[in-house]
Amino acid sequence: MAERRTLAHMRERLPLLIGLILAAISAGCGSSAPTAARADGHVYWLTNEDGGKLKRVPIGGGPVTTLARNLKGPNALAVDSTHVYWTSPTAGTVSMVPIDGGDVTTLATGRANYSIAVDGAHVYWTDLGRFRFGSYMDGTVKEAPLSGGHMTILASGQPSPESIAVNGTHVYWTTWKDVYRAGVSGTVNTVPVDGGTVTTLANGLVDSVATDGKHVCWLDSDSGTVNAAPADGGKLTVLATDQFYARSVAVDGTHVYWISYYGYPYDGTVREVPVGGGKVTTLATGLNFPDAIAAAGTHVFWANHGDPHRLDGSIQEIPLGGGKVTTLASHQHPVALAVGP
To answer: Cβ atoms within 10 A of the Cβ of 156, count?
Structure first.
């Protein structure tokens, strides 16, 4: 999964979100011309147009396909070999649909289901809980079998649990620093997928978390750092500094990738650094409000929100290590992105 949408970010961009809901784009618009296929698979994304849609485009370019509609304010998505999964905080639902489209199934309901991750057996998500006195303080981390069955709460009493990732043995998530209550700091946490003791890995204004199985990586807006630690525990490594406007992070086993923007059109960037530390490289600049990132195969992919009044959001990619930026889909307003079959 790749997404990055904190509560503060949503509040700052409320006019943009309203515009997203009002924007209307015909299904299939913005498709790119096919290129020589580098690998099988698709890029998937959510939009808030026309009540919410799930779309995909082939890796390498091709027609944009709408897989599901009327999603009621979708926010985050994940994909496995057979299905696409997403959360809709407005509806309080966790849903799925086959990767080629079909009937939408509701897996779970809650109060404000937010971010989502999936492995071979379960789907995991964060539920923000109740909004009281300016913040969410009783959030939970939950899981449910992909085959259907009982939902399990892995962690409770979490202040604004947001970004979530899973590596097969552990679940990782972030909580948001509560600016209204002294002493409540944002955190990066982990718990075994079967349940157990919750462990806090780091504190700060944590915005996004990702794992490749061996490493867990996160962004910290307080310190302006990109960080990594061994997934099974160990020393934290600061991989990059002065990254105060970083929004979303991804990791692929060799490098960590993140997007940043400063709040103006076409000032966004994609950067990378070796997962063990080293030189930070800027891969792309001039991006239009980038807000979700994923790395898969030979390329890095990201979603640009754009301006809803100009219908100029897009899905883009660049080769690992840098090169030409390719637009896979234009005239979009994506709110989350993932790569899968």
So the answer is: 14
Contact in structure between 39 and 64 (CB atoms under 8 Å): no
2 found inside a domain? no
204 within domain boundaries: yes
* DSSP codes of every residue in 151-194: -EEEEEEESSEEEEEE-SSEEEEEE---TTSTT---EEEEEETT
Range of the domain at 85: 7-340
Taking only the tens place, the pLDDT of each residue in 157-210 is 998 899 999 999 999 999 986 655 555 578 999 999 999 999 999 988 888 999
For 230, other C-beta atoms within 10 Å of its C-beta total 12
What are the tens digits of pLDDT across the range 263-296? 778 899 999 999 999 999 999 999 999 999 999 9
Domain count, the chain: 1
Q: Is residue 48 part of a domain?
A: yes
Q: What is the CATH number of the domain that holds 65?
A: 2.120.10.30
Q: How far is residue 138 from each of residues 128, 158, 258, measured CA to CA in Å?
A: 7, 5, 29
